[in-house]
Write a structure and sequence with these properties.
- The chain has helices at 2-26, 30-51, 56-74, and strands at 79-81, 88-90, 93-94.
- With 95 residues, the protein is mainly α.
- It has one domain.
- The protein has a three-stranded antiparallel beta sheet, with no helix packed on it.
- A hairpin with a 6-residue loop joins strand 1 (79-81) and strand 2.
- The longest helix has 25 residues, at 2-26.
- The radius of gyration is 17 Å and the shape is globular.
Length: 95
């Protein structure tokens, strides 16, 4: 039974991390993107607080990190590859 619950939690974690990312990639308007971030962060924080024995500060930190990753993904045009050379550029300037 313990193994089954660990598998369910692992699948839930993957779904809560990847599904919003894929959904955010498909949406073009800003307001729906932030609604997706709000909803997925709420689900993530709820899942962490229910499934784990984390303290409130740990749940808050996990939720803040999750939301930060989602927001960076939405605004993710800051760092881009610069062609076939493999070098990175930040806003068009070479690093």
């Amino acid at each position: 039974m313990r193994e089954l619950s660990r598998v369910i939690v692992a699948v839930l974690a993957v779904v809560l991390l990847l599904a919003p990312t894929i959904w955010l990639n498909a949406v073009e308007n800003t307001v729906p993107k932030f609604a997706i971030i709000f909803g997925s962060t709420s689900l993530f924080v709820t899942a962490v607080s229910v499934i784990s024995k984390a303290r409130m500060a740990e749940v808050f930190g996990a939720g803040a990190a999750y939301a930060a990753v989602m927001v960076v993904f939405v605004s993710g045009d800051g760092v881009q590859g610069s062609g076939s050379s493999g070098a990175l550029s930040v806003n068009g300037t070479g690093i």
